[in-house]
Each structure stands twice: as C-alpha cells, then as structure tokens.
Amino acid sequence: MAPVVQRFKTAHEATAATEFALIAPLFVLLFAGIVEFGEIFQVYSAVNRLTSQYALAWSDCVDSPAGTCNTELAPYAATATISNILPQLKTSNLSVAMYQISMSGSTPSVTYSYPSNSTLTSAQTTLAQSTFSSGQSGIIITVSYTHTLSFFNSLISPALGNYLTPSYTIVALKA
C-alpha cells in the first residue's frame, strides 16, 4: 500500500472533528425543534387563556343601564390590555371577535360586538343555535393568533399549516 493511504487508515487525530461535523447539525436541528415546539405550545396556551379570561369577565357583565357591557368590552380588546395579560404574543398577529347575542326563536341577534358592526360567521351562528334557547342571552368570543416560527420558517411553515394559527371560541350564557 502507498504510505499516504496507510497513514490515512491509521490516523486518529481527525476522528473527533469528523464525528463532530457529522453530529453537530443533528443537535442544532433537535435544539431548534424543541424551542419551536415550546413556543407553539406557549402560544396555544396563551390564546386559550385569553379567550377564557374574556369570557369570564364579559359573561358576568350586567347591562344595566343599557350600554354598560359595551363600555366594559372596549378595554379588553385594547392592545395595551392584551400586552399586559400576555406579553409573549404580538398583538398585531392577534384577532379578537366578541359578540353578545340574544336568541329570538332560533335566530341569534347581535346586541354588542367587537369590532363594532361585525357579524357572526356561519360557524358562530351554528354554535349559538345549538347552545342557546329562545329568549336566552349569551356571548361568543373567538380569539385567533398567527404564529411565526423562529427557526427555519420558510421550510417548516408550509408543512405545519393550520397548526401555526390557533383559534379558540367560547360560548357562554350571559349572567
């Protein structure tokens, strides 16, 4: 055998560097995946918590005198309020829709809404019809958030699709 080939076969000095070069990218990918999974879980939890807090606070509102609940509703959707409740969320990626409805037969009519003059979606109308009886009042709150990945966004986002946009809807009777 040629001396160069023989020397290459018995050399051990570069073994650690070669192993590191092969294993390091896998560790970086694993670390990035753990961080991303943690962020997505945190976003899902935060959106759920925000929706729940809005529902608890607003379902207890007594609309006496008329308009009290609408006045109470406005500060909940303010950017500063959301930033105080959930500082980890970017308020520009958040979508909040809140409705106070009253049922007349099987038709829900919106008493108050945020944003103003917005209407129920067909899914929200179906929820109201299946939850409330004629004469009952209730609330429907939907919070959605569009999450952006920190690592490898252009590669992974198309594969995850709707998992990056958590949305929660809560329907509750009005107190």
Structural notes for this entry:
The mean pLDDT is 83. It is built from six helices and four strands; from the N terminus they run ααααββαβαβ. The protein is elongated and about 95 Å long. With 175 residues, it is α+β, with helices and mostly antiparallel strands. The protein has a four-stranded antiparallel β-sheet with strand order 2-1-3-4. The relative contact order is 0.15. It has one domain. The longest helix has 45 residues, at 15-59.
User: How much helix is in the residues?
Assistant: 40-55%
What's the helix-strand series? HHHHEEHEHE
Mean pLDDT: 83
Spans of at least 5 consecutive residues with low confidence = none
In terms of structural class, how would the helical and strand content be classed? alpha+beta
How much of the sequence is in beta strands?
A: 15-25%
Number of strands: 4
Number of helices: 6
* Biggest pleated-sheet summary: 4 strands, antiparallel
Radius of gyration: 26 Å
How does the SSE layout of this entry go?
Elements: H1 3-10, H2 15-59, H3 68-77, H4 79-85, E1 94-104, E2 107-114, H5 122-131, E3 137-145, H6 153-160, E4 167-173
Antiparallel strand pairs: 1-2, 1-3, 3-4
Write out key terms for the chains shown.
about 180 residues, alpha+beta, four-stranded antiparallel sheet, 4 strands, about 20% strand, elongated
Give a nutshell description of this structure.
By secondary structure, this protein is α+β, with helices and mostly antiparallel strands. The chain contains six helices and four strands, in the order H-H-H-H-E-E-H-E-H-E. It has one domain (3-173).
